[in-house]
Amino acid sequence: MAMIRNDPARVAFACILAVAGASCDAAGEAPVAVDAPQVAEAQVLDGLPLGPGFYVRTDAECGAASSATLALVRRDGIGECSFVRIERIAESRYRVEESCRNRQAPPGREHERDEFTQAYEILAEDRYRITFEYGESAEFRFCPQQSLPDPWRGNDISDVTG
């Protein structure tokens, strides 16, 4: 089980993780950890069974996506995060260790990264649910790039999705 330690910078980053669109409690606490079900033998994989491209939270329309509701699924990660280790723990569930760019790092430490362990459930080849290590979850669905607002509609993402 992974927990966010009581490090204010780590909690703050986790609480504003752009793809989450989720918030912490009033005290800024992130008290709940991801506790993915265990299987006899977890299978280590190179990637998640998701097609590359833009995914938008299911509570937002593709045409109204924003940086808070949009995630770019790449070969090697999602959004600001890169996959470190992916374990298949059940038929459609995965425990994923990720290394994420800390967008709130102070000057001179912009390249620092934070490590997180999230639970992913692949609902279909174009839908997934992520449960963040602090307990909140969000569901995303694939949106064709031409259905997104600018600037995402015109971004060339072939270098990270091909």
Question: Can you walk through the features of this model?
Answer:
The protein has one domain. It starts with 7 loop residues before the first helix and ends with a helix. An eight-stranded antiparallel beta barrel has the order 2-3-4-5-6-7-8-9. The chain has 162 residues and is mainly beta. It is built from two helices and nine strands. The protein is globular and about 45 Å long. A hairpin with a 5-residue loop joins strand 8 and strand 9 (137-142). It is 8% helix and 35% strand. The chain has helices at residues 8-16, 158-161, and strands spanning 43-45, 53-57, 70-74, 77-78, 81-90, 93-101, 113-124, 127-131, 137-142.
- What is the number of helical segments per DSSP (H or I, 4+ residues)? 2
Strand content: 35-45%
Rg estimate, integer Å: 15 Å
Main-sheet strand order equals 2-3-4-5-6-7-8-9
Give the overall shape, derived from the CA principal axes: globular
Distance between the termini: 33 Å
The low-confidence parts are 1-37
Secondary-structure element sequence?
Answer: HEEEEEEEEEH
Helix-strand blueprint:
Blueprint: H1 8-16, E1 43-45, E2 53-57, E3 70-74, E4 77-78, E5 81-90, E6 93-101, E7 113-124, E8 127-131, E9 137-142, H2 158-161
Antiparallel strand pairs: 1-5, 2-3, 2-9, 3-4, 4-5, 5-6, 6-7, 7-8, 8-9
